[in-house]
């Protein structure tokens, strides 16, 4: 009888092999040939699952980043204290440990490549929409607790808060000696405090 191939398991193996290369050597080394070798496949066999590096990168992002978000949601117990809950959600989005730094590095390579790859653009839009959803959720938590000034434009502030998260993400990757986890946490805390400091109208 012909051997039954579990395609889902094989794709999982390929994704994990690619991720290991990215963690050890960087995303630029995750070529079709290198990933195939790490997964114990020939390049031709791997191309049966992913015909281009962009398709492979899309699968890696989908497999790991979306799974990482799900895991974070499972682990994160949102504080009943609104300001603390807002801070916790934002810090989950930032690369404050090695696993998140690797994931964010992959995301930025993916985002840059999506500018010239139609195959990647839809997933890029989906993930950035997810960031805006979460920053808006943070603001809604604060607004519901009457911690935000009534004059705050939620839509504009959602974009501003997302910009701060993305800016901190880039700087934490590029200048980790300056933007340490402790410093990033302080910046997030200070921003939230300043955002809510004018809520004096009850």
Description:
Helix content is 72%, strand content 0%. The protein is mostly helical and 202 residues long. The radius of gyration is 20 Å and the shape is elongated.
Q: Terminal Cα separation, in Å?
A: 74 Å
The largest β sheet comes out as:
none
Q: Output the radius of gyration.
A: 20 Å
Q: Please, how many helices?
A: 9
Report the principal-axis shape. Answer: elongated
Instruction: List the uncertain runs.
Output: none
Structural class: mainly alpha
Secondary structure: helix percent: over 70%
Which structural traits does this protein have?
mainly alpha; 202 residues; 0% strand; 72% helix
Topology record:
Blueprint: H1 7-25, H2 32-38, H3 43-47, H4 53-75, H5 82-92, H6 98-114, H7 118-144, H8 154-174, H9 181-196
Helix pairs in contact: 1-2, 1-4, 4-6, 5-7, 5-9, 6-7, 7-8
A few lines on this structure:
With 202 residues, the protein is mostly helical. The chain is built from nine helices and no strands.
């Amino acid at each position: 009888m012909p051997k039954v191939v579990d395609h889902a398991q094989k794709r999982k193996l390929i994704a994990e092999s690619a991720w290991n290369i990215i963690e050890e050597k960087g995303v630029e080394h995750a070529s079709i040939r290198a990933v195939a070798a790490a997964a114990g496949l020939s390049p031709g066999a791997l191309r049966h699952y992913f015909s281009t590096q962009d398709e492979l990168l899309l699968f890696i992002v989908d497999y790991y980043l979306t799974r990482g978000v799900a895991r974070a949601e499972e682990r994160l117990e949102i504080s009943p204290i609104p300001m603390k809950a807002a801070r916790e959600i934002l810090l989950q989005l930032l690369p404050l440990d090695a696993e998140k730094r690797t994931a964010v590095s992959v995301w930025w390579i993916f985002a840059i490549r999506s500018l010239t790859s139609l195959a990647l653009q839809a997933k890029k839009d989906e993930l950035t929409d997810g960031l805006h959803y979460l920053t808006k959720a943070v603001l809604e938590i604060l607004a519901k607790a009457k911690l935000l000034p009534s004059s705050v434009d939620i839509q504009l502030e959602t974009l501003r808060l997302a910009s701060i998260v993305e800016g901190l993400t880039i700087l934490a990757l590029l200048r980790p000696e300056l933007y340490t986890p402790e410093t990033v946490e302080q910046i997030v805390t200070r921003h939230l405090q300043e955002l809510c400091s004018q809520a004096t109208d009850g």
